[in-house]
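lol ok so funny story. i was supposed to be doing the assay writeup but got distracted and ended up predicting the structure for this chain instead. priorities right. anyway since i did it might as well share w the group, maybe its usefull for someone
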Amino acid sequence: MGYVNVVLYLVLPALTLLYYYVKQHYRYWANRNIPQLEASFPVGNMKGVGSKLHFNDVLGEAYSKGKAQSVPLVGLYFMLKPILIVTDLDMVKRILVKDFNSFHDRGLYVNERDDPLSGHLFALDGERWRYLRNKLSPTFTSGKIKQMFATIREIGDEFLASVTRYVDREEAIDVKLLCQCFTCDVVGSCAFGLQCNSLKNEGSKLLEIGDKVFKPPAWRNMLTFLLISYKGIAKRLHLAAFPAEVASFFMPLVTETISDRERKAIERPDFLNLLIQLKNKGTVEDEASEGLKKLTLDEVAAQAFVFFFAGFETSSTTLSFAMFELANNPAIQERVRAEVLEKLKLHDGQITYDALKEMTYLDQVINETLRMYPPVSQLIRVSTQPYAVETAKVTLDRDTMLMIPIYAIHHDASIYPDPERFDPDRFAPDAVHARHTHAFLPFGDGPRNCIGMRFGLLEVKFGIVQMVSKLRFTVSSRMKMPLRMSKSASLLEAEGGIWLNGAKL
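and the output, tada:
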């Protein structure tokens, strides 16, 4: 009888209270008259994400609900954490640009004590983000990028040679792998002076570590949601944002590279050189900003980490999907090739920085690729102060997390008719001007847009020109068609990979 009494008087009331607490908690948005997706304990709206669903599928459901009800915001839940999905483009513009000062933070998990690599530009908030953004921006001016072009061209020759070897053997080409090798070698050399040799070896340890970051198992995706939702508890438990082997590989790599440069007084016009200057000298105008004028070695490593891995992975994703769409649409491929060959003739047959700038139809092809396959398919912002949304008749509390569902916006049939069809003419000047300014967001917008946008676009454009100027591509029988996206990958990735056949012109 004792056990029965314990169940009757202690356990059942506790379970009842928990049930009503959870039920009420999952009405957080409904109680504020904001439409929401129905959630279930303990995962909220994350059930099946990483196995049966991609995170984009959940955001797409919320986006469709908002569009159907003509409301600017729809609620959902990361575990127990309430999140808002922005479904109105005018609201998107306010968050990213007009009212940026109320939404300049991302609210991601940063724990520099236990995981120094987590303190990178993409995740930092407030004044530290603002300071680093200002200091790192000069790396990506047109002049600096132009200085890196000779290196890109040199590695591009290796890229072409690697692909041509498969063509000569009449074998299917693993396009995603070779694109990763190309962009890994480019970013490694241009930003850090590293000889990654990924193309020569068709892989590298850096690519393996990249997979740990961008292709985590489903449980790690859930852990990421938990870390964001319960940052204070996670820090007290000394939890890291990244797997331990990522830090154990990358930290010594950066430390040894910096030590070598300083010992030999090596200076290169690259990103790492700027980081070393900020570590050793700071600048005169920083005198008033106590604690910000010099970077620690850990801070240098964190910035190097995010620029390296985010830089090569996003670019290779775009390049590989662009190559797939050109192979899958022969008429578009021929139109691109005609433009490429015409412009190269004007530059003595050489792929030059100026020649690339003249290839405007190729720009449209890349933009259409970024529309269909945005590498970063959602943006996160956190309200830094109470914010009134008149169209929703609600005032957002400070620290409310909002997500802009880029993938869903880019596949909205009311904005882009027949959105699953690849059509570069959507980005002809007249078509662009007819659309809302924030209907296309592959790099975000406003002060917190992608800092490496121009560099990324350049290496993608160069890679396509290098390929189509010498080779013609078709879709291989090894390719899984119709194309489906992997449910588990953080960035968009085709199930089974991207496999093409090539032939010399």
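Residues 284-291 have pLDDT under 50 and may be disordered. DSSP finds 20 helices and nine strands in the chain.
back to the writeup now i swear
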